[in-house]
Amino acid sequence: QVQLLESGGGLVQPGGSLRLSCAPSGRIFTIRPMGWYRQAPGKQRELVATITSDGITNYADSVKGRFTISRANGKNTIGLQMNSLKPEDTAVYYCNLQLRQQNYWGQGTQVTVSS
Asked: How far apart are CA 30 and CA 44, in angstroms?
């Protein structure tokens, strides 16, 4: 069973920055597709950014130019640098990893953008 450990959420003012991190609790011997999703109150979970095993990235239109997903070299550890944060970015952010045709999720980390 894969467990994903997330960190880095918190409260930030509009225009501020936060960085999220995610890593699996155990060792996974191949580089896997991973990503970040978020869920705001009363809304469905939505894609924020993904990165393939080859390092190809994809972003939701709402975060393009503001968020950057990255992977530690040769590891299943990813980060999400979030700049120019807006109140509408407020949500619980979840890390995702795909392995053996299954999706694994972290426990979620709260990001609140408010003055």
From this structure: 30
